[in-house]
Amino acid sequence: MAGDGEEVRNKQVVLKDYVSGMPKESDMCINTESKIKLKAPDNAVVVKNLYLSCDPYMRSRMRKLDSPSFVDSFKPGSPLSGYGVAKVVSSGYPNLKEGDLVLAWGTTGWEQYSLITAPETLLKIQHTDVPLSYYTGILGMPGMTAYAGFYEVCTPQKGERVFVSAASGAVGQLVGQFAKLSDCYVVGSAGSEQKVDLLKNKFGFDAAFNYKEEPDLDAALKRHFPEGIDIYFENVGGKMLDAVLANMRVHGRIAVCGMISQYNLEQPEGIHNLMSIIGKRVRMQGFLAGDFLHLYPKYLMTVLPYIKENKIVYVEDIAEGIESGPAALVGLFTGRNVGKQVVCVAKE
Amino acid sequence: MAGDGEEVRNKQVVLKDYVSGMPKESDMCINTESKIKLKAPDNAVVVKNLYLSCDPYMRSRMRKLDSPSFVDSFKPGSPLSGYGVAKVVSSGYPNLKEGDLVLAWGTTGWEQYSLITAPETLLKIQHTDVPLSYYTGILGMPGMTAYAGFYEVCTPQKGERVFVSAASGAVGQLVGQFAKLSDCYVVGSAGSEQKVDLLKNKFGFDAAFNYKEEPDLDAALKRHFPEGIDIYFENVGGKMLDAVLANMRVHGRIAVCGMISQYNLEQPEGIHNLMSIIGKRVRMQGFLAGDFLHLYPKYLMTVLPYIKENKIVYVEDIAEGIESGPAALVGLFTGRNVGKQVVCVAKE
């Protein structure tokens, strides 16, 4: 396939300009004119992208970020980039060969083929008896986020009361299932009846509620946690966080994974109930999965058997074709996706 | 002294009613009519109060608190209570005898004499070659707060950049000195030139600023911490916390000890920069000294030599006479005190 410099057309999802407010499909365009040589130079690989991951953190990269930040801004006029599953089509890097499947840890382009000049960031996929797309979700960054956030940051004890927001999302659905495997009581919130149904009937949450139908979040939490919350896995921020702070138990823990409700606001909402963390000795901790990559092999060994034995299930929302990328990404911020949002660029 | 039921007059500082907004001296009154028998019943002691501690957390007890809370409301019509140094004048409790000096851990009354019915909460003072009043400060709850908050919660490393707000107060002045003893760079904020001078010239802070003279707290912090803050010892909350959140370094820690700027507001100010704790993986932790009481003997053994060798200094603001109690307590919230505010009820 990779002749000495065969050049092919390479469709890309390009950011047109920095975005303010809610991102729209029209903030991106499909560039059909770009071309790429399918021959990798030394110490680089060329990959064919199969599955691209739509992740909320990508919103921050659509604005001009002050440096230093933990991520870079996307470059207007260039394709987006992120996590994805890809196949090596040409390798100038000794540790990878043509045909290898890889998980790009935040480093592949939103395009059909990518030249990866830092191939040491690619993780070679060893286990292919599960859906390949899972490496953008349960077997990738979101999975590690749920695992490290729940076990390492929240340090759960049997019987503790766990609350997860955005609970049917890529990360939340796993946190809830980990919590049940740890004999915790777990309640999730989500934004539609369909998602609430998934939480209760597919992921095994003890209870769930649709936050859009709750005029008083504090009352909703008090109904589900009359004795308070030990662990909050924070995905949304804003009013939900404020309501949770008013309902934490002594020595509670809050793993701050994301605050998706705030990403499109010019000025984030104010949080008013922080003072309560003193008397209740609450620990609130921001974290990124990338700090726990040393646990990834252990995580895979733990979660692969659970998947095969159906002890953990994973719901994905797969959009077909790279042209669907802008809509799929934008949909994260209106909650259009049900489960982990993936873009399938090619099946193999 | 303690005849079989000798009854003496017992002046008290009484809370008149629950307080909203900024507390005023007139929210309290001096009751000169109360009497007390100086003979302790079985399993109780009667103490003569020598030094009473004025602590910001007492503000919360002046309002009607929802239960459960980590403290109870004061009872309108009854004396305040809190931390203090006292002398046993009559004992029905085998572990204490007449003449013993004790540190009451939150449990003595704002009055000349108190009947203590839970004498097991009293810590017998063993070291009397330091000012007795220190047991309300550096050798008491504020000292343990600084010690546990800095060493246990903030886990400082040599060379780290530490910021302390309310830095000349009972706790802050110690945090700054502990930070210097740990080879950290430490900057403090306070509310007057006199206090800033103390920070720099008496407590050995590397730098200090008067927050009231800084129109832009973010700019003030950037001036003192061009590379950001590793450790923030939080005593004030509100706008200062928001400015600090914007200036934390990756893997920074915030020990949340108090938020004195918020205690008299009907609705706490909103905190807008919490989202930054995700990308920077900041840990924010509320704590109370009471959770670290097991470390108190170790702390005393550490700090007593430092005091005697003048390696740590401690500034107190001592109001004379129980009648000065209301003004002393209220003064905490306007920053009138310079150093640890104590009320001296009697010298012995």
TrEMBL record, chains A, B:
* Key words of the record: Oxidoreductase
Q: Which Pfam families match?
A: ADH_N_2, ADH_zinc_N
Instruction: Give the encoding gene's name.
Output: LOC116197615
What is one process in the GO biological process aspect for this record?
response to oxidative stress
PANTHER family (alphabetical): PROSTAGLANDIN REDUCTASE (PTHR43205), PROSTAGLANDIN REDUCTASE 1 (PTHR43205:SF7)
Instruction: Report the superkingdom from the record.
Output: Eukaryota
Q: Which organism is it from?
A: Punica granatum
- InterPro entries registered for this protein in UniProt: ADH-like_C, ADH_N_2, ER, GroES-like_sf, MDR_fam, NAD(P)-bd_dom_sf
Query: Enoyl reductase (ER) domain: which residues?
Result: 63-343
GO MF assignments: 2-alkenal reductase [NAD(P)H] activity
Q: What is this protein called?
A: 2-alkenal reductase (NADP(+)-dependent)-like
